[in-house]
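ok so i was messing around last nite and threw this chain in just to see what happens. nothing serious, just curious
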Amino acid sequence: MQRHHIRVSGVPGAQPLLFAHGFGCDQHMWRLVAPRFEDAYRVITFDHVGAGGSDPGAYDRDRYSSLDGYADDVLAIVHEFDLTEVVLVGHSVSAMIGVLAAVAEPDRFARLVLIGPSPRYLDDDGYTGGFSAADIAELLESLDSNYLGWSRAMAPAIMGNPDRPGLAAELTESFCRADPDIARQFARVTFLSDNRADLAKVTVPTLVLQCSEDVIAPVVVGEYVRDAIPGAELVLLDASGHCPQLSAPEATTAAITAFLRG
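result:
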């Protein structure tokens, strides 16, 4: 509970919804979506180690040198509460963390909701990830040299919605709350990972939620994820930016609800 600052709400014994936040965020980012499911589900939110109210002393550089370490944390939470029929809602990098967890122990999971997923951010032959090798190198160099400056510069681009500056300000504050050293390593792991081969191993019903404009995960990436996961469904939200749970919570909630009822 303390390691990941876990919060449990909703209906005891009901089907669990486990919300996993993305890079630079924490569970507070779910506050406009997660409570809307408390009347019918057991809602669980948590912070990845190094984010939010998690225990920074629990960080181990070797464990978190790949997304597998974060997936192991998700499974540890599932085991701690002896959860079954889990619906995992993963945002950004946690979409792939959720994929890894569901592939490792499919009997624990009922469905996946992947918001703004990307199995690989780097462009490759025949694959568009949205970033060139030079882009990623520049991003990581900027992170290493001036994390706070990078946060203030990148948050508005990631959030989108320039007509709503409060959203970018909130994301900036979230980035700045994260432990800089851990965030730098998490960014490196996130942007250099390649989980394309894992998608075909997913065996549970999956919803891909994609914003129509997203500089981090373009629509073509969402389409790739949909096509690579057997039977996956893609819903394109009439929203911009990489964080629809903040910029378009009603549409995000409606899409998840429809998927759960389907």
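not much to say yet. The chain has ten helices and seven strands.
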